[in-house]
Design goal:
The complex is a heterodimer of chains A (155) and B (776). Chain A is of the alpha+beta class and 155 residues long. Chain A has helices at residues 13-20, 23-29, 115-145, 151-154; strands spanning 2-9, 33-40, 43-52, 55-69, 73-82, 85-98, 101-113. In chain A, strand 3 (43-52) and strand 4 (55-69) form a beta hairpin. Chain B is α+β, with helices and mostly antiparallel strands. Classes of the chains: A alpha+beta (155), B alpha+beta (776).
């Protein structure tokens, strides 16, 4: 499945770029995310709860940041597997300054398998959209409260 | 003493209510999941979420640490068992070694990887999630035509062309037929993958007795005896140490005409843990791990003269086999070829089958098994030809039917049709709907912008499967009749009925032959320790072959009963009627129970006669039987939504002599429901990575009761000369006759918009798009 869209984050581009790669902020913003631990350069171990239609379950996986071009774009690769199947997402995030903050455009693919595919395929599209929307809303809220935050301080 | 010389009323042909139903309807029947045993453990299977992957590592420790988990077994534990057998043999057939559990690679979503055994089913299910499997995902292919394309991912790396077999069959002079042709119509016709969806999923209970080294295995199967033989082979166990019991089976439709990994796996588990173990398939597992049906892409070419005379038929058949061969997987498309000429007399055919591996669930026998696909093909092609020639489809059919005086009729595919009168059901159905009036109505409807269609299908089918040379495991059936010392009668049939009502029809046959009350007859089946060897129930063979075996066993037994009766009455010959042996000359009689008692007491025996009253008969049929019929469907298509609604459904089926019209009606109704499912709603959908998207009943459009039309069912009766009962079989008729009638009807409704063919299922979206295309 292909996904694309954009969202306005009400902070300057440089800060938006940092926020989007900050594991603490990401952990708080990603819906269902339990933990996000650094396991290497730009690589994190993630545990999250996924709910789709009548099925739910824990996902164990990895988040990777690649092709990082500071302040303007990077790729976010998410892979997870659990009792309800597996999912793989690969997206390019592009940041452009606009009035009132930064426009974050995203474009990528989501692939699922196992029970999620067998049962939830028809709801996948709307669920993905909803999760992305919630993520950016949460990120916006985080951006208002974490001005002095330095990700490297805790890692 | 009063004499009874008038012929008593027989039960053959009577609407006797199914004796099975009270227990089935009141919840007092025992299905597999009702079996409970002291110390019984429960198993759940770990399955691959990937359609193709290498297993890099497998960690079962976290599952074993969970309280209540008794054992976990993986591929390494069972690598020496098996393989899961394929009974089909074709020249050059490639058969992948089908292990009970995956070894280092998985080939489809749902592939069993490990089994967790626990004291409780919920613990076992939860522990499945604790098994850590590290997969290296590999490219997969789910579409059979894409699998044949160069460079497609190889399902089995040793066969990069994904071709399991190719098969060619030819009859007559196909080149000559096409050379003579004045018109040739061609069409690609698909018969989509379907999921059989029996109400009861599969399930297995295995109980190992270490003391006498014997194993009892309960399975929801259609073939207890064949399962025992094949399972003994898989397990390397003497067959006579193994007992297979079939409890009540909640539907099979061919999907339980198989030997599955879980049957061997549970036997293995019980032997290893020394306890009984139960596994019951979930609905999601059922969709992924029990065989699918159909899965054809067919390219047809029909040659004819301008006057409508059909000359020859060419077929290229691409069969989606899935990742493995189950018991009959590669054989199913060969049945399509046998049936491809339908009811028509042209004698030139050519067929090429390509059996293709895909990373999907194996296909195998599903209600009709190859014959619905063939009938759909020929009946669509006849309508396409009629449209091309601007001929009435009924008239075109009549012109090409095998005539009623031409039986036995040798087909170009090597069959000998036993008997038939093909015009009769067609004309009966057309009279029923007043065909000419409907055609006039259709003209008026079109003039006012309404879409209405009349669709015909005249189908033939191959039943009573079959003579032993035509089957992989013997095509006969067996029956034992025992008259107990009290005069009560026990029948043991090797057929393993599971919804076909043979506890009733067989008792009718016994009651008629022995002149006893039907309530004195019990029919036993489905236990290899009690019932003599048998083949099972599939391919409409239960009554046509199993019933005939019973008939012949009864003839033997009747002779013996008469000898004892004559001895007791001191006469030469007696008749059996009204529960008595009657000397018709003197009018003296002796009750049946007294005759039975005398045979076991054996104070005196007739000359050359053993004590007791038991007879067993194994009957080998000389031929298949060939039922036929006509289904006519009137549809209205909503121009704005593409929704198809069925106004009338008229089925005139000829299944030979009818023993019980209620049971025949039930078979027709159920068959039509599954045919409509294929025609209008059902489809197993895979994404390009081999993920089954229609993985649950919420996504797989199985017909519901409210979606069914009223079925106007009637019959013509052309007896079969193949067996003394004159019966043919009716298990698949509804399904086979249905789908082409529905599609022909909808194509007929849209034909003036330039629509010539629509592939199933006829979803509103598909139909609506065609209407839009037609408008533009």
């Amino acid at each position: 499945m292909k996904i694309s869209g954009s969202f306005l984050v009400p902070v300057p581009q440089e800060r938006a770029f940092r926020l989007l790669q900050d594991p603490v902020v990401l952990a708080r913003s990603m819906p269902g995310c339990d933990t996000l631990e650094r396991i290497g350069d730009n690589e994190y171990h993630m545990k999250m709860k996924m709910v789709l239609a009548s099925i739910s379950g824990l996902f164990d996986g990895k988040v990777r940041i690649a092709d990082s071009r500071p302040h303007s774009s990077f790729r976010l690769i998410v892979e997870g597997a659990g009792r309800i199947g597996f999912m793989k997402g690969d997206g390019l995030l592009t940041l452009t300054p606009v009035e009132g903050g930064t426009n974050v455009g995203y474009e990528g693919t989501v692939e699922v398998g196992g029970t999620i595919a067998a049962v939830g395929q028809r709801l996948l599209d709307t669920t993905a959209r909803m999760m992305i929307k919630r993520f950016f809303e949460k990120l916006t809220a985080e951006s208002a409260s974490s001005g002095a935050f330095s990700p490297t301080a805790i890692l | 003493m009063a004499t009874t010389t008038t012929k008593p009323e027989t039960l053959f042909g009577k609407k006797i209510r199914r004796r099975e139903d009270p227990r089935l309807l009141t919840g007092t029947a025992t299905y597999l999941d009702d079996i409970k045993m002291p110390g019984m453990h429960h198993a759940c299977v770990v399955r691959s979420p990937h359609a193709a992957a290498r297993i890099k590592s497998l960690n079962v420790k976290p599952a074993l640490a969970r309280p209540g988990v008794t054992a976990v077994f993986t591929g390494a534990d069972v690598k020496d068992l098996g393989p899961i057998p394929c009974g089909a043999s074709l020249p050059g057939l490639r058969t992948p070694h089908h292990h009970i559990l995956a070894q280092d690679r998985v080939y489809l979503v749902g592939h069993p990887v490990a089994v967790v055994v626990a004291t409780d089913r919920y613990i076992a299910a939860d522990a499945v999630d604790l098994i850590e499997v590290d997969y290296e995902v590999l490219p997969a292919v789910s579409d059979p035509e894409k699998a044949l394309a160069p460079g497609a991912p190889a399902v089995h790396p040793q066969w990069p062309d994904n071709t399991a077999f190719t098969f060619h069959q030819e009859g007559g002079d196909i080149t000559g037929a096409f050379a003579q042709a004045e018109v040739v119509v061609k069409q690609r016709i698909t018969s989509q993958r379907l999921i059989p969806t029996s109400m009861e999923t599969r399930g297995v209970v295995a109980d190992w007795h270490a003391g006498d080294k014997s194993l009892t295995l309960w399975s929801s199967t259609q073939i207890p005896h064949l399962l025992r033989t094949l399972l003994a082979g898989i397990l390397g166990m003497p067959e006579n140490h193994l007992r297979v019991i079939t409890p009540e089976v909640g539907g099979g439709f061919g999907s339980k005409l198989n030997v599955y990994a879980e049957e061997a796996l549970m036997a293995f588990v019980s032997m290893r843990i020394g306890k009984p173990v139960k596994w019951v398939e979930s609905r999601r597992e059922n969709f992924l791990c029990t065989i699918h049906g159909r899965g054809h892409v067919d390219y047809f070419e029909l040659a004819a003269r301008r006057d409508g005379t059909m000359l020859g038929l060419r077929l290229k058949l691409i069969q989606d086999l899935g990742a493995y061969h189950q018991l009959l997987t590669p054989a199913i498309p060969t049945l399509s070829v046998l049936m491809m000429p339908g009811l028509y007399k042209f004698k030139n055919i050519s067929a090429d089958i390509v059996g293709v591996f895909t990373n999907c669930t194996p296909t195998d026998a599903y209600r009709g098994a190859g014959r619905p696909e063939a009938t759909h093909g020929i009946e669509r092609m006849v309508d396409i030809l009629a449209a091309e020639l601007k001929m009435d489809p009924a008239e075109l059919r009549r012109k090409n039917f095998v005539g009623k005086d031409e039986f036995p009729f040798q087909t170009a595919t090597g069959l000998a049709y036993d008997s038939g009168n093909y015009v009769l059901p067609l004309d009966t159905a057309l009279a029923e709907i007043d065909y000419p009036a409907l055609r006039r109505e259709q003209q008026q409807a079109r003039a006012s912008g309404k879409l209405m269609g009349i669709g015909l299908s005249t189908y033939g089918e191959i039943c009573a499967i079959g003579p032993s040379p035509a089957t992989p495991a013997g095509g006969w059936e067996s029956a034992t009749v025992k008259i107990e010392p009290s005069g009560k009668i026990t029948v043991m049939t090797g057929a393993s009925p599971h919804g076909q009502g043979e506890e009733t029809t067989f008792a009718q046959i016994v009651a008629d032959e022995l002149g006893v009350d039907i309530d004195d007859v019990v029919v036993v089946h489905g236990d290899t320790a009690i019932v003599q060897y048998g083949i099972g129930t599939f391919g409409s063979r239960g009554t046509a072959i199993g019933g005939t075996a019973l008939y012949y066993a009864l003839q033997e037994l009747k002779g013996k009963v008469k000898k004892f009766g004559a001895m007791l009455l001191e006469c030469d010959d007696v008749a059996l009627a009204g529960g008595k042996c009657v000397d018709e000359r003197s009018g003296k009689s002796v009750p049946f129970a007294q005759v039975a008692a005398a045979s076991y007491r054996a104070m005196k025996l007739p000359p050359n006669t053993q004590p007791g009253l038991v007879a067993t008969y194994f009957w080998e049929p000389p031929n298949f039987t060939f039922p036929f019929g006509a289904h006519v469907v009137i549809t209205d298509v909503d121009r704005e939504t593409g929704q198809v609604s069925i106004r009338r459904y008229v089925a005139v089926d000829d299944c030979g002599k009818i023993i019980n019209p209620l049971i025949v009606a039930g078979q027709v109704h159920g068959g039509v429901a599954q045919g409509l499912g294929q025609a209008l709603w059902e489809q197993a959908v895979y994404d390009e990575n081999g993920q089954l998207l229609s993985g649950e009943l919420t996504d797989y459009a199985l017909p519901r009761a409210h979606m069914m039309p009223w079925i106007e069912s009637s019959h013509t009766e052309t007896p079969s000369p193949v067996n003394p009962l004159g019966v043919k079989g009716v298990g698949e008729a509804g399904t086979i006759g249905c789908s082409p009638a529905v599609v022909n009807s909808v194509v007929d409704a849209l034909s003036h918009l330039g629509v010539r063919h629509i592939d199933m299922p006829l979803t509103p979206e598909k139909v609506w798009k065609l209407i839009q295309g037609g408008r533009a």
